[in-house]
Amino acid sequence: MIRAEKRRGTNNVLADLGLPDAEELSAKTLLAKKVNDLIKGRGLTQSDAAKLLGMPQPKVSAIRNYKLRGVSLERLMQALTVLGQHVEIAVRPSSKREPARIDVAA
Q1: Using one digit for the tens of pLDDT, what is the confidence trace for 51-84?
Q2: Phi then psi dihedrals of residue 85, to 5 deg
Q3: Residue 73 Cα distances to 16, 18, 43, 51, 93, angstroms
Q4: Are 34 and 80 contacting, i.e. CB atoms less than 8 angstroms apart?
Q5: Which of 17, 40, 53, 101 is most exposed, with minimal Cβ within 10 Å?
Q6: To 10 degrees, the CA torsion angle through 64, 14, 27, 101?
Q7: Residue 22 has pLDDT above 80, yes or no
Q8: Which of 100, 44, 104 is nearest to 76 (CA)?
């Protein structure tokens, strides 16, 4: 019987799948989730959200459906501020115990 070699995963399933932009996609997904929760919580249609956020309705649709490759982190952060959220970015040095990475909490 041949055993498959076990690979240790990370905390990022997208990185485990080998996606080259896994950290950025993870960050976008978390921000989009927060945007979507706020839109849903306000009972906004995609058209209403587009007007409020100052973006075309197809872009809101892309965010709602997590098709985020054409949506920038900046656009998601701007949408969050329009929706009344405080967005904070903190930069600190990495170490051997904590390698350089991008973390997003929403």
Answers
A1: 999 999 999 999 999 999 899 999 999 999 999 9
A2: -105, 145
A3: 22, 21, 24, 19, 21
A4: yes
A5: 17
A6: 180
A7: no
A8: 104
C-beta separation of 26 from 19 below 8 A? no
Domains detected in the chain: 30-82 (1.10.260.40)
The answer to whether the predicted template modeling score (pTM) of the entire model surpasses 0.85 is no
Give residue for tokens 């989009």. Answer: 32
Extract the tokens encoding 8.
Answer: 């240790």
Query: Which whole-number Å values give the CA distances from 61 to 4, 28, 54, 79, in the listed order?
Result: 41, 15, 13, 13
Cβ–Cβ < 8 Å for 71, 63 = yes
